[in-house]
Amino acid sequence: MKPAPLMRVLQTSLRRRVRAPKYRFNSVPAPDRRQLLVDVSVIISHDARTGIQRVVRALLGQLVESAGPRFTVQPVFASRDHGYCRAVLTEDGRLDNASGKSDVLQPVAVRRGDVFLGLDLAAHLVPHLEGDLARWRREGVQVCFLVYDLLPLHHPEWFPRPTARKIDRWLEVLRRQADQCICISNVVAGDLSRELSARGSGSLPKITTLPLGSDLTASYPSLGMPIDVGSLRSWMQRHRVVLSVGTVEPRKGHQELLAALEKHWIEVPADDVALLIVGRPGWKTEALQERIRSHPENGKRLLWLGAASDELLLETYAGVAGLVAASHAEGFGLPLIEAFAHGAPVLARDIPVFREIGGPHFDYFDDDAPAAFNARLQAWIRNNKRPPEQVVAALPRWADSAKVLMRELNLVVE
Fold first, then answer.
1. Which CATH architecture is the domain 6-213+399-408 placed in?
2. How far apart are alpha carbons 193 and 186 in whole angstroms?
3. Residue 210, class by beta-carbon neighbours within 10 Å (0-12 exposed, 13-18 middle, 19+ buried)?
4. Where do runs of H (alpha helix) occur along 200-294?
5. pLDDT for residue 6
6. Given this structure, which CATH class describes domain 218-393?
7. SS3 (DSSP) at 273
8. Which residues does 386 contact at the CB level (< 8 Å), separation at least 6?
9. CB-hemisphere CA count at 13 Å for 205?
10. What per-residue confidence (pLDDT) applies to 66?
11. What is the pLDDT, as a whole number, of residue 414?
12. DSSP E strands: which ranges in 92-174?
């Protein structure tokens, strides 16, 4: 067991003392059952509704639903101003301070045998909370983290400048304090093992994997349809729609996919193949975003939905010719299995993680030069078939994911 860096512990302690007058702290004793303390520090203040947030919502909901008499699931959150405090999950999937008042906090009390799960990706916060985690470990709490990917370390050029530094500091905390790291794919598990091994001698945390669920409806999906949804439905009925789902950011491959379809549109001006992009505007892609908005096919054979509810996404999955995943790297790729589970064929870039989750059931491409990519894309559209029912039925659901997670954490469910 390694201590937290003394200077950071002192800085955190001083900051909390200065900020303490902002809050009233109401002590709540630890329950007489084991606690699974699930960190929701980021999503409680801002749910970006991207892949990581879907995992947090879905797993937390399933854990709460599955908790037996031997343990209780307690959402927790922290900030730089205070340590971990109790939160509550409402019936509609929202997270709130357990007291119901922003200035009244209920600090977490722990007992030997409790488990902390860093479910949310709070890389910017965890280094400031390392002292709390180290103290909990000394008191007999098992400390575990879910690891989504290490991409900012390997490709900092794809991310905002501070991201790699935050992930680096977060990994140092995992190296010192984590008893177990649960990864969302074997690819991520391999990356993590190599990265932690390269950071120094000593025993590594236990590294395992967790299958992610394909049933979007079990993740507290957002609801609502745009006012002009009728026009969208009509457009989709008139076209063979290629769907791309994901934030418009550098690694996602939107540019290569658009270039391939531009070649096709030029060569076959009257063809009905169209591109639908579903994803929020991201970082480092301003030129690409403007290119999409000002494209001569925008509103014709090209549409970009910068904000779409999960309800709309579900309908979209069922109505497209297929989903194309052109991303250069992922920790997993939830839209691929979600689309596949709802009837959409998948064409994915031939990278290890997509092979891992799709195996023989996805189609793949390995050349994104416009001519080659377009040729592969058009052949796939002509020949693709809806996923077989028996294959879809065998996909993991979020309830399955939660069962595996509880087994990994040595929690007994009755």
1. 3-Layer(aba) Sandwich (3.40)
2. 10
3. buried
4. 229-238, 254-267, 286-293
5. 85
6. alpha beta
7. strand
8. 343, 344, 345
9. 28
10. 85
11. 46
12. 95-97, 104-105, 115-118, 142-147
